[in-house]
Fold this protein.
Amino acid sequence: MNANWVKVIIAAFFEIFWVIGLKHADYFWAWTGTVIAIIISFYLMIMAGRELPVGTVYAVFVGLGTAGTVFSDILFFGEPFQLAKMLLILVLLAGVIGLKLVTKDAVEEGVEE
């Protein structure tokens, strides 16, 4: 896996934290952590977008972040488990994985395949 895709995955991981933080932060340090997660998340996404197609990067970023947020709500915040919701998340993840698989990584100049 290309290092830029790793950046997208890490960015999505931090997206989960800042989305949860936007809902649950109610004191200074929680808001500070939320802002730091936003900065890290968007920085990594922007860096990956310099080498990969931006539309695909954004779709993968949002898809993974959405799935992670839904799973976190169920595991940590008592959101009820709904089979229909899980099936739709699986469809979303299948689309994200499909986008990743059909998107070519940037080829370095001077390197022949």
Remarks:
- Residues 3-102 form one domain.
